[in-house]
Design brief:
single chain; Response regulator; Sig_transdc_resp-reg_receiver; CheY-like_superfamily; Bact_response_regulator; Rossmann fold; 128 residues; phosphoprotein
Length: 128
């Protein structure tokens, strides 16, 4: 089981966020594509409590579609949409358990948002 599934097709963004989240004591599975994310969501060993997904995926459908599939598979999953185009959310009402974070952002902002969603440890792991 993991705390979070991170879907971003930009390797620099994905690895930077993944490292920061792990440093904060959050269990992360990284996915570079929709296919990888969907495979992880269907894996009984993964079962993330939150999906962090970029909206603009060059490798398949957009983050909204992936989130809808995730929510169908895991009804209690929280979703954080990350995007450099905040305008794509202007006509969308976020549901309970959904948040948006506009790029660029600091990893600490995402960690704070995860704590707000109650999906991250309250404090860093011992020895950090």
């Amino acid at each position: 089981m993991c705390d979070l599934l991170l879907l971003d097709d930009d390797p620099l963004v994905r690895t930077t966020l993944g490292e920061a989240l792990r440093d904060a004591g959050i269990g992360v599975v990284e996915a570079a594509s929709e296919a990888e994310a969907l495979a992880a969501l269907r894996d009984e060993q993964v079962k993330p409590r939150v999906l962090v997904t970029d909206l603009d995926l060059r490798t398949g459908r957009n983050g909204f579609v992936v989130a809808a599939i995730a929510q169908a598979l895991l009804p209690d999953i929280a979703v954080v949409y990350i995007t450099g185009r905040a305008d794509v959310l202007e006509d969308r009402t976020l549901r309970p358990g959904e948040r948006m974070l506009a790029k660029p952002f600091r990893p600490s902002q995402l960690i704070d948002l995860l704590r707000e969603l109650d999906t991250a440890p309250a404090s860093p792991p011992a020895g950090s």
